[in-house]
From TrEMBL:
Transmembrane segments: none annotated. Belongs to the N(4)/N(6)-methyltransferase family. It holds the Pfam family N6_N4_Mtase. Residues 121-496 form the DNA methylase N-4/N-6 domain. It comes from Bifidobacterium pseudolongum subsp. globosum. Residues 1-14 have a biased composition (Basic and acidic residues). This is DNA methylase.
Amino acid sequence: MNERHEVELDRLDTKSQNPDSSRADRLRELFPEAVTEGTGDIDFDKLRELLGKHVSESRERYAFTWPGKHEAIRQSQTPSTATLRPLKEKSVDWDTTENLYIEGDNLEVLKLLQRSYHGQVNMIYIDPPYNTGNDFVYKDSFGDTIENYREQTGQEHASNPETNGRFHSNWLNMMYPRLRLAKELLAPTGVIFISIDDHESMNLRKAGDEIFGENCFVADIAWQRTYSPRNDAKGIPSEVEHILVWSRMPNWNPHKLERTAEMDAKYKNPDNDMQAWTSDNPFASEAASHQGMVYAIQNPFTGELIYPTISSHWRYQQDQMLDYMNGWCEYKLEDIHDEAKRAEICGIPEEDVRSNVQAIMLAQPLEESRQHAQAVLERGQWPRFYFTKNGLGGIRRKTYLDSVGGRLPTNFWPYAETGHTDEAKKEIKRLFEGKMPFDTPKPSRLIRRMLDITTDKNSLIMDFFSGSATTADAVMQANQKDDGQRRYILVQIPEETTSGYGTLCDIGEERIRRAARNLTEEQVDTNQPTLEETEPAYFDTGFRVFALDSSNLKSDEYTPGQELDIDLVKRGRTNDDLLFEVMLRWGLDLSLPVETKECNGYEYLSVAEGELVCCMNDGLTVEVIEHIVNTDDKPRRVFIPDHVFGEQNNLKLNIVDALRRASSEGQEIELRTV
């Protein structure tokens, strides 16, 4: 008998996902005994009992707190009923681009993106307000967040003056919920970089350690933001800004940077070796735990015994060291009863030193060995371990240039490598024909450094305080350099400016257009293919623009007892508006391709070749549904709003039955409505 596959016509969840709910679900899985029967709530008294000795009973503990912290946490937990509406007229290459630019309050936007991008963002960079007393500070409200957002965007400028008694608290209340939500978007290998100055760096460090975990703190990077410190400043002039870095998981390691010519110049070949090398330490530490690698090597030029320094051992195993020494002359292993010397090096009593550890000794008389070694010295191309001072000194090790790879980034980023504030302003002026529409940009080289040590060619990058859109510019530059397909998501509140360019969003979007145009022209000039070459890789310079707005659905506007229309979609909202709200609620990537298809004169929308099919026009028939499930699309999700069915209950039943039949034949189809 065939298994019956049920297809239910369920209601679409019209609220954003609360990331803390998944944590509670994990607790329920780990401790089912602590789940209250009936309600499903977690009994924390029972949980404490189950955890036993792992629960702290002390009332005294370290805590980082401030007025409004609990409210800030609630802000991050409160679901959003808002949506993101597509603005195709402001977008570039809408049909093909995978980049997103979102106009709106980043707190609401971060909530809305939880389902679609949870655990997928490889790098986040933000340059939030520094709380200097005059910065724009996002004024969050626990009530109607969309109305609050509309009020904010009507303000030309808001401030958080230092005379305010809650100066630091207001800033923390703004940052804390946003960082909690940002953490949930980071991939397991993801990293967040946050620019900040001295005003709030200490508070940001504490808040970040609490949210991401102290064991995930990576670095406090000092970025040299200026090449000419002010001489008229009071006190000690500030030459650097902080960039605080956390990883999603502990033990994150950055990619190595390209080596500089200055670094490579240290590698030479004085012995005419085929490869350039530099002199390196032949020893490693912790002799006591590596006693088999603590022994003497006899110098063939002088006959002296050479030992590792105190607490050190030879870097390689003895058989490998013997091979290296045989490159000078013939050697042998011999017990020379040097336990006292080896015990001294290991820092242990002589009776505890390992016995039967032989020395590497000359196998021929000293004079004969010296002649062989002198010939090697004069011939060149010495062995990996060589004798210094023409044979009269100690032993050193060659480290070859081709073995060192790149260089590890440090926590000091000089302006010569990562740009400075004046460079950032010049970048903007070049793009805007000498005008300066944004006061505090960051140089693209700074963000390029972050991309270099964090991302690969297919990474997803996010910036939810995107300002003048330097991050988008830097991502495009990185893609141009290595033919990458990195994508970005930028978020910016459309704050009015006095620059003559409208809002900050207008400035950011225009900056992307102009930077893309310049980069495309550069690519055409430098990458003209020859007859033997193929065309260069596709270079995505477009972006889809979305705007934060209230839901497209009227359901949240009704009160009990009020008569409901069949059509719950707000007047003035389009099928495209509703489509992207459905994609958000279903957790689909907003950059997926959308195609309008037709069957028997009925038009429907297909996302990513059947990942989602939306039938939102009147006139839907069972024949159309049967065509959809039997075409190449073979949809995995189907959305049909209630107004399409109208009063035709039979149509609804027949469509559900058609989808059920498709599911019984191996197609797993989810069906939703509103």
